[in-house]
Amino acid sequence: MAIAFVPKESCPGETRVAASPESAKRLTQAKLELCVEAGAGLAAGFGDEVYRAAGARIVGAEGWSSALVLKVQPPTVAEAARLARGAILVSFLQPHRELELVAALQERGVTALAMELVPRISRAQAMDALSSQATVAGYKAVLLGAVHLKKLCPLLMTAAGTVQPAKVVVFGAGVAGLMAIATARRLGCKVEATDVRMVAKEQVESLGATFITVPGAADMEGAGGYAKEQGEDFLRRQREEVAKRVAEADLVITTAQIPGKRAPRLVDLAMVRAMKPGAVIVDLAVESGGNCELSEEGRVVEREGVTIVGLANLPASVPQHASELYAKNVLALVKLFVDKEGALAPDFQDEVLAGCRLTQAGAVHHPPTAQALAAR
To answer: CB-based burial of residue 20 (10 Å sphere; 0-12 exposed, 13-18 middle, 19+ buried)?
Structure first.
């Protein structure tokens, strides 16, 4: 029976936890001995007593020496040094940004399984933490936009007159974008959306929004359903097509990201200047460079009469449900390599485990990260 450890997240502002009470119960049923660091779930609304009731032990920092460690945010280099040699780590790892951490995991012979590298294939849908957390972020983005707007969202017909619905433009119709569209529609907004993948048109329209078509978009879908990196010519045409809608919008939500690369700049200074006074932009790509030229990570700023929300890690602002969803993703992945006796037996012939394997046995198995390390 292997010991699994869920530490308290040390990243500032991180309120999520890698195991919910329900997933804790399922992990113990899988014959793992689950240890949860004292207070690990408090910020998400899960007290130590609910983990005890689920069969877990409450421990201190000694849990870092366990055979299996489950996290949300990448560990610090100091935390990585506390991992047992040969341990298995399951977490978001941001390898393109955390090369020093990757080197530390490699040196300790840790098998690191990166949640953001889980292949987007049918059998791995239950493990797709990027999608589960993007769902939360898309929902919260609209609420933040509504809070900062100086007007109401829905159409209202009152004795005092008619209030027109807020106009919303969403950049990107992936998981976060579609949730933003659906949430804005529930609030009664008039919504338009753009995406470089033409396959998104039907999804956008099914939610009652209008799709902004950009010539040449048919060729922009990449592997795994992600958008390809766009050339400057396409971005110019997209800006021209969308700029007039942005100028009329009350709320703009940008969600366009490319895994492992800087987010494309979609809203420039000229577009911001053309927006109505009091309009709001919520930039969900701010942590990877931002879709808006004027976004500032971690801040809400006013520029050119427009409020620009660049708050990072929106899922952590809804920690209970974000944790429950993430914990289910982690549980589904862990069950792939725990045998009937509770022993850890990862089979890297499995395409899911092979796809998310970042480091193992002193080697880096993710080619882009290995190349980046070699180039340092």
So the answer is: buried
Residue tagged active-site, from 52, 57, 97, 120: 120
Q: Which of 44-58, 124-138, 230-244 has the lowest mean pLDDT?
A: 230-244
Q: What is the pLDDT of residues 287-328, one digit of tens each?
A: 999 999 999 999 999 999 999 999 999 999 999 999 999 999
Homologous superfamily of 3-127+318-374: NAD(P)-binding Rossmann-like Domain (3.40.50.720)
Catalytic residue among 52, 57, 97, 226: 226
> CA dist 229 to 200, 258, 265, 376, Å?
16, 7, 11, 24
Q: Is 226 among the catalytic positions?
A: yes
| Domain boundaries, given as residue ranges, for the chain | 3-127+318-374, 136-312
Q: Tell me, yes or no, if the two domains 3-127+318-374 and 136-312 fold the same way.
A: yes
203 belongs to the catalytic site: no
Q: Residue 120 catalytic?
A: yes
* 20 flagged as catalytic: no
| Cα–Cα distance for residue pair 195/198, rounded to 1 Å | 7
CATH class of 136-312: alpha beta
